[in-house]
Amino acid sequence: MKSFTYERAGSPAAAAAAALKTPGGKFIAGGTNLLDLMKLEIETPRHLIDVNDLALDKIEPTQDGGMRIGALARNTDLAADARIRRDYGLLSRALLAGASGQLRNKATTAGNLLQRTRCPYFYDTNQPCNKRQPGSGCSAIEGYSRQLAIVETSEACIATHPSDMAIAMRALDAQIETVKPDGATRAIPIAEFYRAPGDTPHIETALETGELITAVTLPKPVGGKQIYKKVRDRASYAFALVSVGAIIQQDGSGRVTVGGVAHKPWRVEAAEARLPQGAKAVTDGLLANARTTKDNAFKLPLVERTLAAVLAEARA
Amino acid sequence: MKFDTPATTNPIDRMKVIGQPLDRIDGPLKVSGTARYAYEQHDVAANQAYGHIVGAAIAKGRIVAMDLDAARKAPGVLSIVTAESAGKLDKGKYNTAKLLGGPEIEHYHQAVTLVVAESFEQARAAAQLVKVRYDETKGAFDLDAAKSGAPDAPSDEDSPTQTSVGDFDGAFASAPVTLDQSYSTPDQSHAMMEPHASIAQWEGDKLTLWTSNQMIAWSVGDMAKTLGIPKENIRLVSPYIGGGFGGKLFNRADALLAALGARAAKRPVKVALQRPLIFNNTTHRPATIQRIRIGATPDGKITAIGHESWSGDLKDGQPELATQQTKLLYAGANRMTSLKLAVLDLPEGNAMRAPGEAPGLMALEIAMDEMAEKLNMDPVAFRVLNDTQVDPEKPKLPFSQRHLVECLRQGAERFGWDKRSAKPGTARDGNWLVGMGVASAFRGNLVMKSGARVTLGKDGVVTVFSDMTDIGTGSYTIMAQTAAEMMGLPIGKVKVELGDSSFPASAGSGGQWGANSATSGVYAACVKLREAVVQKLGFNSADAVFEDGAVKTGNRAVPLTQAVSDGEITAEDTIEFGDLDKTHAQATFGGHFVEVGVDAATGEVRLRRMLAVCSAGRILNPKSARSQVIGAMTMGAGAALMEHLVVDKRRGFFVNHDLAGYEVPVHADIPHQEVVFLDETDPMSSPMKAKGVGELGICGVGAAVANAIYNATGVRVRDYPITLDKMIDRLPAVS
């Protein structure tokens, strides 16, 4: 771990300004991912801005009937919130499918969105990795890629985003509220939040330098059956091979977001129109441009079969 | 004491303390955090500094240059150890690769540098500043590719790697029903909870190592050889071990580098292997490719059985003995086994819980399931039919005890085996395809010379001293039970001190020989202590009875404490084993029964029930023995379903080198586990009439899971671990 300086921010805007002022600075909240990465020198921030005192942990209704989730709301608290459980069951289920109780107690909403990939080559500083060390190459494409992405990959990177929570957020059309170093605020639709890896897999989101997430808002509830099905090799405490987050209405219409297949929560609205035609039709649309490796080709049938099971559960 | 004739009636048979399901005597220390593990020995030596290891970034090649300047100048750095600075070092007898690499690199993450600093964080930060330039050379990393050129593994007289009885080829060719299949098991990591860790202190030319090690005497010898100093100058202390599974049978880099670091820094130094290093720096269970051929008559009698296994290791390494059980488990007049060993430049392969049988049975017991199906026989009945009461390679050699059939029959009855649908893929519970599987368990019963010293104190408390280790198994407790039984005391009147090389050398913990051998050592020492007490009290030793804290003959009873009124009495002895294991085949047996559910859509496998029925001689403590078996069943489930060190065949290393990438079962994976021990004693084994169970529990489990998956789905996977990607294209369509 590299030495770093540390400060506690007094306000969101001050935190953002501090981050702009100190190149190589990072925000720290729960630290469940960042600290691990710092110990291995995969992340080497020179300065940490602790945002835990910013009182951004409230979960409250918005004026238009939705919910605003503070950036610091812990995963445990968010999953257990009665309104979230009642109106956004998908989110609660996705959260509880992730990590462990101890980690969820520490992990925050914004930190969960910003967690880094679990590609094993990203974790080994002896190996080339374009995400960790831009331009060094990708070890995974011709290496061990069983966990890795099959859509919107690039020649530079086939990493996946590991979050369960983000799958639900994407299906729920969440917006990410931020403050910039100059104090300006904006709301970024989650569909536009994550970037495709392209030639710059180390740039993962639309956030600008210093920009701090303050909250995630959910539009008013959409009802329907909300199902999160996570497929993994062991029953708990494992990252998804694939996961399906679905909201299915009585008339058979709905939304589907898939995890474990892309650099971001994977949702193709056009494919959702085919929901009444069944899982194969939707999957064909969702994964139309998939590019698989020998190790991860199984994800194609797995997504379709998992979605079929989800649709059957929704009908039941 | 020499044990060379079968045990007769002895004080252990009273079973007042032995055989009771007593709580662990070290339990309160463990659950209160006061059992000090190696890295936590903060107060044994003042002024401890911290070492951090740098592992090689290549699998094979040479170090061209090392730039240590930045690290040397980093805050808090006290010294830096490299092969160049360490001076001449030998290699331990039990190590295949050097514990400190350079200039030659033998495997990925082989230790190349230790940075010692005032704090852990300083040592780590400075270690990350070490720059090493390598000349990487091409290595062999792919067992599949190396298989065809792999020669016979070297044999020795006691364990030939090529065996042949009768005319296997002829019998197989003419058998009416045959099976010829290949199976593979992956490299696996011990992945124990406690990382390898050591604290070293030099006082003059004398070294003390507080470490985490299963085999104290071996490791003292190997450390002496490596450092080139007399054994007498080394004290190794390892009272508590947070899991070993064979990964701590030998010294590892933490121990050697702590010693070298302490010498260089002139201060005590502590070193733990960082988790990402453990998978490639230490040993692992090697991958195997196995071919099994079985020929049988139409009514199910095996006439030919052949088992070949290929594994790889570094040059001068050893094979995984995956054919071991096939020599002994089933009858059949014509047989062959063969072990081939390829040279691979992966990290060192070595023992992991039930080496040989664990991966061997994962293959053999699927083959038996497949053969039963070909014969249209029930898999339990097929195994029972082919039981043997003699070593099938040496028909004059009987087993000392063999109750495999009872294990299988009793297990089948308890498990409700009769409710299994013989036709695969036909039982369903909602979205789950449900199936049952069975496998035989087999593990040899090894015995090892083992010593102990026992002292009867003036307070009437007996203290046992031995370098035996407790790797979470319950050694403390069963050794206390043994002394209590022998001396006629309650367990509360016995203390046990273990894991210190200044105590008598014991069998150590490995090969499931520890419990039986080490308690026999305590037995031997207690026989001597009883003689001394009897003599002191003026009894005729032949008819003295030790019970209720007293020595009794006829109507005379004298409190034990009277013997020590003028000073404690100490006795020491070592149990040595004669050739009863040559005149009788000795082994432990069991039957594993597993029910799985397979998600009909995703192919995820979830265990529903597990049962093991074990035949392992006298069970010294049913509670700790059960813990051993359920832990082993859990490990077997991991082997079946998820454990897999993935080889990067381009760069020669295990890619998934942390506990997020190398998955082992978590609580949610393990259902209700039932363990039954047959009520038996084996007088050929030792005066304790006991055997081991810690490895028996893992033997066969993987295949029972595999067979249950086949029964559930009709999909046969012969390549472990059985993950959903290997089945998904063959599962029924999702409606």
Average of per-residue pLDDT values of chain A: 97
CATH topology of the domain at 356-446 and 584-730 in chain B: Aldehyde Oxidoreductase, domain 4
For the biggest sheet of chain B, the summary is: 7 strands, mixed
Shape designation of chain B:
globular
The total count of strands of chain A amounts to 11
Write out the strand line-up for the largest beta sheet of chain B, numbering strands in chain order.
Answer: 4-6-2-13-10-11-12
CATH architecture of the domain at 356-446 and 584-730 in chain B: 2-Layer Sandwich
CATH superfamily of the domain at 356-446 and 584-730 in chain B: Aldehyde oxidase/xanthine dehydrogenase, molybdopterin binding domain
Taken as a percent bin, the fraction of beta residues of chain B is 25-35%
Distance between the termini of chain B: 69 Å
Query: Main sheet of chain A: which strands, in order across?
Result: 4-5-8-6-7
Number of helices of chain A: 11
| First-to-last CA distance of chain A | 52 Å
Question: What do you see in this structure?
Answer:
The complex is a heterodimer of chains A (316) and B (735). With 316 residues, chain A is of the alpha+beta class. Helix content of chain A is 26%, strand content 18%. Chain A is built from eleven helices and eleven strands. Chain A has helices spanning 12-21, 34-39, 75-80, 82-87, 89-96, 101-106, 109-113, 165-171, 269-272, 279-286, 299-315; strands at 5-8, 25-28, 47-50, 59-61, 67-70, 175-179, 185-189, 212-218, 225-231, 242-248, 254-259. In chain A, the strands form three sheets. A five-stranded antiparallel sheet of chain A has the order 4-5-8-6-7. In chain A, a hairpin with a 5-residue loop joins strand 10 and strand 11 (254-259). In chain A, helix 5 runs antiparallel to helix 8 and helix 10 crosses helix 11. The longest helix of chain A has 17 residues, at 299-315. The radius of gyration of chain A is 19 Å and the shape is globular. The mean pLDDT of chain A is 97. Chain B is α+β, with helices and mostly antiparallel strands. Among the domains of chain B are: 356-446 and 584-730, Aldehyde Oxidoreductase, domain 4 (2-Layer Sandwich), CATH 3.30.365.10; 448-576, Aldehyde Oxidoreductase, domain 4 (2-Layer Sandwich), CATH 3.30.365. In chain B, the strands form eight sheets. Chain B has a seven-stranded mixed sheet with strand order 4-6-2-13-10-11-12. Chain B has a five-stranded mixed sheet with strand order 1-27-21-22-23, covered by helices on one side. In chain B, strand 24 and strand 25 (550-553) form a beta hairpin. The longest helix of chain B is centred in the last third of the chain and has 24 residues, at 514-537. Chain B is globular. The mean pLDDT of chain B is 97. At the A-B interface, helix 11 of A face helix 4 of B.
